[in-house]
């Protein structure tokens, strides 16, 4: 919920918004989260941005959304070519049965305890191994035993702790000790999130070719501006797509009053569509829609004026490259930093 939204929605008790941009462009891996919403929203700050350089008498006043300037900042030092992760919140995963197994930070802590116990027991057994073939003392024994533990996921398929431990069936005690010494199970995939310069040169795309600002065109308000020279035919900004699974979620319904005197949506009386539908791509024979992540929309606090195409590009700079091959959105920052602007 952004400041002032309820003031503009006829005292609705709940308001749904879509804020595409940086937060919608990157993935979430809870133990590797390295950027966060700056959460700088205040009522005063939001309304201060409303005019976007326009006078109260300008015909463009009211056409510029105050929901601008939302920023994400680095929460730790980020190495060059590292993938950026934001937290979706535990509720995002808990509310979706398909993600019941996804571990949170506390589950990785428990996984480390399990790993330490495993290492202590195995090393004790190996020290007491008096067999002729010394199988218990072998690396094959370590790998087979750990592989058996990993296979228990098929039984405890909703155990977050089981999915927090390293899942490689060939893991040895030495490998587990290295995992613990490198930040624990929470950091087991960290090195995989850092790409090479060669990979970036081939696959990377710049997202800071443009910036937002106040237009010098009379009554135009806010717009997108080139931050460097862009060649003809060159990339202005990547445009990944956010998936909307069901277009009916954008339907606006009439309301009715129940016997208890409560307002309730009348699903038998659709009256309109959310404005964001105008900015979606889709086919009439499917319910799935796609909205470009290069624009900024929300369902209520947006108005139709001739300047809409100017300020709709405000969060262009927050767009990220989408890797369709792996069906995931990946954003990398090219230069290591302790903070982002």
Question: What does this molecule look like?
Answer:
By secondary structure, this protein is an alpha+beta fold. It has 2 domains: about 5-80 and about 195-240 and about 295-335, no CATH class; about 105-195, no CATH class. About 20% of the residues lie in helices and about 15% in strands. It has 8 helices and 13 strands. The protein has helices at about 20-25, 45-50, 90-95, 105-125, 140-150, 175-180, 195-205, 310; strands spanning about 35, 70-75, 80-85, 210-215, 220-225, 240-245, 250-255, 265-275, 280, 290, 320-325, 330, 330-335. The strands form 6 sheets. A 3-stranded antiparallel β-sheet has the order 6-10-9, with no helix packed on it. Helix 4 crosses helix 6 (about 175-180). The model is unreliable at about 1-10 and about 295-340 (pLDDT under 50).
List the helices and strands and how they pair.
Elements lengths: L21 H4 L9 E3 L5 H6 L23 E3 L7 E2 L6 H5 L10 H23 L11 H13 L21 H9 L15 H7 L6 E5 L7 E5 L14 E4 L6 E7 L5 E11 L6 E3 L6 E4 L15 H4 L10 E2 L4 E2 L2 E2 L8
Antiparallel strand pairs: 1-2, 3-13, 4-5, 6-10, 7-8, 9-10, 11-12
Helix pairs in contact: 4-6
Summarize it:
The chain has eight helices and 13 strands. By secondary structure, it is an alpha+beta fold. It starts with 21 loop residues before the first helix and ends in an 8-residue tail after the last strand.
Notable traits:
disordered N terminus; three-stranded antiparallel sheet; alpha+beta; single chain; two-stranded antiparallel sheet; 16% strand; disordered C terminus; 341 residues
């Amino acid at each position: 919920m952004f400041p002032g939204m309820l003031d503009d929605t006829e005292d609705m008790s709940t308001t749904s918004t879509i804020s595409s941009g940086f937060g919608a462009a990157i993935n979430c891996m809870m133990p590797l989260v390295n950027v966060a919403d700056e959460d700088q929203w205040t009522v005063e700050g939001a309304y201060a941005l409303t005019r976007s350089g326009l006078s109260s008498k300008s015909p463009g006043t009211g056409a510029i959304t105050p929901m601008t300037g939302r920023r994400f900042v680095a929460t730790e030092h980020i190495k060059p070519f590292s993938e950026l992760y934001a937290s979706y919140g535990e509720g995002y995963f808990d509310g979706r049965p398909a993600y019941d197994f996804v571990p949170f930070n506390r589950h990785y802590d428990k996984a480390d305890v399990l790993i330490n116990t495993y290492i202590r027991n195995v090393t004790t057994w190996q020290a007491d191994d008096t067999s002729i073939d010394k199988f218990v003392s072998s690396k094959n024994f370590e790998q087979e035993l750990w592989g058996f533990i990993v296979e228990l996921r098929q039984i405890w398929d909703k155990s977050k702790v089981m999915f927090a431990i390293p899942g490689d069936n060939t893991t040895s005690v030495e490998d587990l000790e290295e995992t613990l010494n490198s930040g624990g199970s929470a950091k087991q995939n960290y090195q995989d999130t850092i790409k090479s310069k060669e990979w970036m040169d081939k696959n990377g795309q710049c997202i800071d070719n443009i910036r937002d600002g106040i237009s010098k065109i009379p009554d135009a308000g806010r717009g997108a501006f080139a931050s460097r020279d862009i060649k003809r035919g060159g990339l202005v900004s990547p445009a990944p797509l956010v998936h909307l699974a069901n277009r009916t979620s954008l339907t606006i319904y009439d309301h009715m009053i129940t016997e208890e005197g409560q307002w309730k949506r009348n699903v038998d009386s659709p009256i309109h569509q959310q404005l964001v539908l105008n900015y979606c791509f889709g086919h009439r024979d499917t319910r799935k829609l796609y909205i470009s992540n290069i624009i900024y929309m929300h369902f209520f606090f947006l108005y139709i004026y001739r300047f809409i195409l100017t300020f709709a590009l405000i969060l262009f700079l927050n767009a990220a490259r989408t890797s369709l091959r792996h069906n995931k959105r990946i954003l990398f920052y090219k230069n290591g930093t302790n903070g982002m602007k």
